[in-house]
Each structure stands twice: as C-alpha cells, then as structure tokens.
Design goal:
The structure is a homodimer.
Chain A (H helix, E strand, L loop, with lengths): L2 H17 L4 H16 L2 H12 L3 H23 L7 E3 L13 E7 L2 E5 L13 H8 L3 E5 L5 H17 L7 E4 L2 H9 L3 E7 L2 H12 L7 E4 L4 E5 L1 H20 L9 E7 L4 H9 L10 H16 L3 E5 L11 E5 L1 H5 L13 E7 L2 H8 L5 E7 L5 H11 L2 E6 L38 E7 L8
Parallel strand pairs in A: 3-4, 3-6, 4-5, 6-7, 8-9, 8-13, 9-12, 11-12, 13-14
Antiparallel strand pairs in A: 1-2, 2-15, 10-11
C-alpha cells in the first residue's frame, strides 16, 4: 500500500468525519457550487479536454452542460426530498407481528468512495461525473483515480471542484485524487474506502472487482464494464424505412468515433434490407477519426485485422484512414457464425465498428437477442402491431437495462428514473444504475432508529 | 457440479420462464396461498419444528405468525404498489441535457434466487422466510438450500408451499430445494442462479460469498453473517433504573437461548451499576437450555471454556447446566482488554452469553461503540438530555443498521421501512436489508423502456 494513497484516503476520511451529518441543503450547495465553477470555465475546459481526447470541442462543450445538469439534478432532488427520503413506521400497539415500536429510516453516507472515471467521457463519466455526483449527493467523500487518457484535464477539474467546495464552507478533501495503476489498486483495498464506482474495460474492471471482493471486509464495486449492444429491425420497419434506419445507424455508430459504451454493436436485420450497402454509402461521408489514445487505436485496428482474417466475416471499411486515424467498419456475418461458441464476432470492439447479421427468419433474430450476456441497452425498430416487435422487445428486456423503441442506443438521458446498467458483463451489479437519480442509492446506507426521541434523531 | 443441482436449477429456470411477466396480483396470490397453507397447519408444523430445534412450541407458533405476516405484507405491498412501483419520465422536447425521450422504469425478476435459510429461525428466516418471500415478491423462482438443523421441517414446508403455489395456478417449481454442503456450493455457481440470500455463520457465508464473486459472471450475494451487537448504558440510566436494565438484559440475552443474530453481545455500563451482579440474580431463575444442534452446543461450551481460561475475563455462569445443556454466562472484562488487537472477547459466541464492560469515563464507552466492525443493531439506554446519550447514538449509527433507544436488540419488527443489515461482517452488502419491504429490492432488476408505445410495455 503506497503511503501516498494511505495519506489521501486518510484525508478523505477526516473530511467525511467533519462532513458527517451535514444537512442535505449543504450537500446540494456543494454540488451546485461545482456546477457553477464548471459553467464558468466551459471554453477553457473544453479546449483542454480536446487537446487530450480529440473528441471535438462542440461535443465536449455539450458534455460539460450534461455534467452540470447532472450535478444540479442531484442538488434539486436532495432539496426536494426526491432522493434519500426518510421513512417512518409509527408505533403500533399490541404484540408482534402486528405490534411494533416506532421506526425511522434515514440514509447515511456509505463512507469514502473511490471513483474510476472513463476515458471516453472526460466530463460526464469522469472526475466530476455521475459517480462522483451521486456519491457527494449521498454525503460521501470521494477519492478519484485519474484516468491516464486525460490527466491534465482531470487535475484541473479536481482543483476547480476543491475550490468550489471550499467556497461553500465544506471540507475540500471531500474530493481528492490519486494517479497511477498501482495507486488505483491500492485505493480499492484501502481500509476507509467503502465503495467503488468504475467505468472502463472489462479486464481492468474485473481485476479491481476481484480486489474489492477479496478484501477481509468486501466492499461493493459498482462497475460498468462492457456491452455489445444489440439492435433489431423488424420485417415491417425494414420494408418501409430502410434508408432512415441506415441513416440513424451511421450517425449512432460514428458518434464520438464509436467510443461509447452504448454504441450499436450488433444489428440484426432482414437480409433484403441490404443494411450494410445502404449504411456504407452514408459512412463514406464521415471523416476518419482520431481515437482517444494510441492504445485504443491499436486495439481497434488489431480487432479489425483479426475480423478481416476471419473466414466467417466480411469487413467493409468506409474509407482508407489517414495515418494514426481510423474509419468506420461494418462486419457482415451469418447468425450461426455469430452464435458459435467463442466466436471472435462477439468480442467487444471499442471504436466505430459494428457487426451486421442478416436474418431470413425472425426466430433467428430472437436467438441473437437472447445471447446469454447482459447489455446496457438494446433497440428495436419496428411497427407497433408486429408480432416480431413484441418478441424482440421481450427478448431484449431479459438481458438489457434499457430497451429503446425506434431509436438508437447512444445518448443516455439524465433523468430521474434512468437505468444505465445491466447484467454482467454490462455492469457488476445489475440492480443499480450509474445515471439518473437512483445512482445515489449505491452510496447511501440505511439506518433505522427505533423508539428514538426527536431530539436524538440523526 | 452435481447433476441433481443442475436439474433442480433448470426446473426453476423453466418455471421462471413460464412465470415471466406474471402480473403483481398473481405474485401476491402465490404469497398469500403459502401464508394460508402455513396458517392451516400451525400446530403440526410447530411441533415438528420443536422436535428438531428445541426452541419451544410457543415461540415457534409465534414464529409461524411472523412468517405468514411477512408473506402477506409483501402481497399487500405488491397489490397497493408500495414496492417495485413503476416510474416514468415523460418526454421533454428540446435538445439534451434538458430534452429527452419518454422513459418508463419497471422492475423485472433478477432470475433464479438461491436461499440459504438460518438454523435459528426455521420459519421466519428459513425455507419460507424473508429471503424467499421477497424473492417471490420480485417475481423470481427460488431454490432453497435446506438447513441440516431441521431437514424434516424444511421438506414439509417446501411440499406445503409447492402445493399452495400450484393451488393458484402458478408453476410449482417456483420453489424447489437441494440438500447437502456440496450441493449448496454448486447452487451458488449454477449458471441460471442470479442472486443468493444467505443467513448463517461468517465462515460459511464468506466461503459462499467468495464462490459467488469469483464466478465468470459474478452475482450478488446477500449474506447476513455475524454481529457483536453492542448496548450502551449512560450514567443517568444506570443511576435511575439499573434494576430495570438488568431485567431487560437477562430477558433479551436468554430469548431463544441466545441463539439470535440480534443477541445483546457487548454491554458497556457505568462500573457502579454492578450490572453483572444484578443480572446474575435474575439469570438464576432461567432454566438451562438445549441449543439447536450438538455442534452449536460444543462451539458454545468451547468458547466459554476459552474465555474462562483467559486471564482478562471473569466468567460467571448462572447455574450448572444439565448434560448436553447450557446455561447463561456473563463475561466481565476491562475495556482496554476488549479493545486489544485479536482479543478473544470480540469473537462471536452463538448462545446465551454476553461480555460486560464497566466504564469509568463515558469516552471509554464511545471507544467500544466505535470499534471498526459493522453490526446489525446497537442500543442505548439513557435519558434524552444527556450528552452521553447523543454521543452513544452517534457512534452506533456509524456502524449499525439499526439503533434502539431504551430497548433491547432482539425482536426485529416486520415493517415497511425496517433495516436488518449493516456493514461487514454483519452483512455482505450494507445498503440492503433482509427484513421489511426494502428486502425486495435485492432481487428486482430495473429496466427502462425508452419511447415505447403502451401496447409494447412489459
């Protein structure tokens, strides 16, 4: 255990001790103060982010807006009692099971929370993203593990947030950070750390999950890992609006250069819709892209090469990419090959690529949608009366956290009841979400006070 | 993996497939049908339980009532929409982050749930106890691992419940069972099992938790393991009602022969209250007791022998027990010895024993209450205005799921907002409860439908 990590976590624990019992109004003030500080520096922050991520300034400006919206949503929900609402069961006289003393349920912070932000959303799922916002809303102290893809931006965000926290007279060590791979691992096993929020790869996530679970005192690890999001097109939709579907597909696939956990990854579509041809025509117009890091670029091009060499796949590239860049790729294959055990077609590929599987019989499509792996989101393009539409929605609901009708998987709305999560390997805990108001439940520990006089209630 | 376990889990999965999408009214009918079947056989079931547990028929009759109350509570909560209530965020026009499509959140069963019941509550935390009731309420299929302390009762309960399920035209494989240690382990790693509810020892619980966490697809393990529940008496309470406190202590300690996860295990009390002497006088009147199993008896007597041999403890036994029986034991020690690293005084001891720690300075008591281990419940006996009362409640709330004012830890009311859980090692997931309506949240997976027309909503 690095001494530095021990020190940082101790500072966080001390801040939490000081902050313990702070009323929800003060927590809301912290969240809003951070949001205001972000709003005040949108341009400089977006430019700094662009220099480290190449995600494009307009998209990054929008992501800051999403991030401040999210911080303010938690703040208003705290103020209005829409989250962490206390409950009470008044005393009932008589003997049990009907009779019982008065019980009052409230929510305490689970402890110091470690947050591992994502590479691909430096703001909304980063240092000050949903995990940090929901942990702070729950009253926790947060120690961020800085992502190596954008260290300068992360340091800037942390400094800015700490100032904003201090500006409303809260302990600024409520938000601290560590850097480095070993430091991240040390953080997960640090005694005072009581929960982890993680967004990243399945390999790194599994490693850290295993560390969290094998502690002498295991702690919850809320990880969003990887998701091969399926999209299904019914015969009716294919007949009436194949061009429109191709257009939506091309846009969703190349948004953020395909570096989204919600990227459409597998599309099952009637063979006669000729989706690959239609989509390729549109993808030719999309410029080649610089991915987040060299490592991600290498992994993407390596995966495309492996698929090109696979006799079961036909890879079409939208255009020849420039040096160090990538272009969109569509991989066409047959359903039986996709379903074959250990098929390389089912490996997640981070970047602008998708597998297209033509079907002749809708039951084959259902088989693809029923693959025994969880996903964050699935989509159905169809017409309301079609039996296939119903079958596709039903199959997807068994394994996805979100099912979209006549839309695309990218774009996770920040709303009260949103669900961004799903069965393994989409996330490590399928009952929780990392977006929306329910995200706060991951970091709030219920306590019931029995027969407690009002003056002693927490 | 035993073929038998594979077969049983497959049956459960098939029943779940059939039951999938059953409206909440039908789930409620299943719960009530089981409750009615239990009510119809209270006497014969209690006598069968008595023959295997020696817990006493009156207590067992009361436990059946608690169990049927619990089943009906979930049924009425389902009908009234007090649990698993769908939510919706209507469409907001405009661009994100404010604008968003319509989202509808509902809850689906997490999958097949494995339930490991407790030895000490054959009804309320057994085959048809809170874990099974909440899993069935969530719409799951349940596979019970039968506890070896009461196999005949368990088999009877399972047969009775399966008949009751079939009687309301639900698939009777919604409740099945396996027996045996290896079968239990196999159950936790069976592919279709998606969550585990467990009540038992820390050693068995940790072993199964590790199996659940190290699966290729880890699943949540909701385990209630062990808890050294603390009770603190303020100077004011000790001055004014020491006899009353001794009386409550003696009763709570010997309830169910101390075989409660909520047993008062450590009492910190002003030295001048002479709590050990006062309580011993009352314990003399309590008959010696037969514990649940020979193994539990041996572990208890072994622990008392080890404590008697420990130079830091003074063990007082209420009376000489008959052959194969045990009597209540009070272990008096000093706070510094209790706090010493690795002290045997902090080992959980299942049975009618408690450690009493006299204090001279209330700050010493706070140190005991602040030990870095989670507990299910802590109690404070005090007067409302005392600063010690506030300090004790505050310290306990940091590590307990429930804090009781002027009462004793035994007796967990079955109410909507109850919290029966706590930080490790009390439970494996401190944000969840195994008693009360919130227990259902452990087994319900949220799904959000985006832009879905009403006719296609699940």
């Amino acid at each position: 255990m690095s001494q530095h990590v021990t020190d940082v976590v101790s500072q966080a624990a001390a801040a939490l001790d000081e902050w313990w019992g702070a009323p929800v109004e003060r927590r809301a003030a912290v969240l809003e103060s951070i949001a205001n500080a972000l709003d005040g520096q949108v341009e400089v922050l977006s430019e700094l982010a662009e220099s480290e991520t190449s995600l494009g300034v307009p998209r990054l400006v929008g992501e800051v807006a999403r991030t401040t919206f999210q911080l303010r949503l938690f703040a208003s929900a705290l103020r209005e009692g829409r989250i962490l609402r206390p409950e009470s069961d008044p005393e009932v006289s008589g003997s049990p099971p009907e009779g019982h003393p008065a019980l009052a349920r409230s929510y305490l912070p689970i402890g110091v929370v470690a947050v591992f932000g994502a590479s691909n959303f430096p703001f909304a799922f980063g240092v000050l993203g949903g995990d940090s916002a929901s942990a702070l809303a729950a009253g926790c102290a947060v120690v961020v593990k800085v992502h190596p893809a954008h260290p300068r931006l992360s340091r800037r965000l942390i400094a800015l947030a700490r100032e904003a926290i201090a500006a409303v007279d809260a302990p600024q060590d409520l938000l601290t950070s560590v850097e480095g791979v070993q430091e991240g691992a040390d953080l997960v096993v640090a005694r005072e750390v009581q929960a982890v929020g993680f967004t990243g790869s399945q390999s790194a996530g599994r490693l850290l999950f295993d560390l969290a679970s094998s502690r002498p005192d295991p702690i919850p690890f809320y990880g969003e890992l990887s998701s091969l999001n399926p999209v299904a097109v019914t015969p009716g939709a294919a007949r009436t609006r194949a061009d429109e579907i191709a257009k939506g597909f091309a846009e969703s696939l190349t948004l953020g250069a395909g570096q989204f956990c919600t990227k459409p990854a597998v599309v099952v579509v009637p063979r006669e819709a000729r989706l690959v041809e239609r989509t390729l025509e549109l993808l030719i117009e999309v410029p080649d892209a610089t991915l987040l890091t060299e490592e991600i670029t290498e992994r993407f091009t390596g995966a495309i090469t492996r698929l090109t060499d696979d006799s079961h796949a036909t890879v079409s590239i939208s255009r020849e990419p420039g040096a160090g860049k990538v272009s969109a790729a569509l991989i066409e294959s047959e359903i039986a090959d996709f379903l074959a055990p250990g098929s390389v077609l089912r490996d997640e590929c981070f970047g602008p690529s998708a597998v297209v599987l033509p079907y002749d019989d809708p039951n084959e499509a259902v088989q693809v949608l029923s693959v025994d792996e969880g996903v964050l989101v699935g989509c159905v393009h169809g017409d309301e009366g079609e039996p296939e539409a119903r079958a596709f929605v039903r199959a997807l609901s068994r394994r996805a956290g979100r099912v979209v009708w006549n839309g695309w998987p990218t774009g996770v709305a920040v709303t009260a009841s949103q669900m961004h999560g799903g069965p393994w390997p989409a996330t490590t805990t399928s009952i929780h979400t990392s977006v929306g108001l329910h995200a706060v439940e991951r970091f709030a520990r219920p306590v019931v006070l029995q027969g407690m006089p009002p003056g002693l209630v927490l």
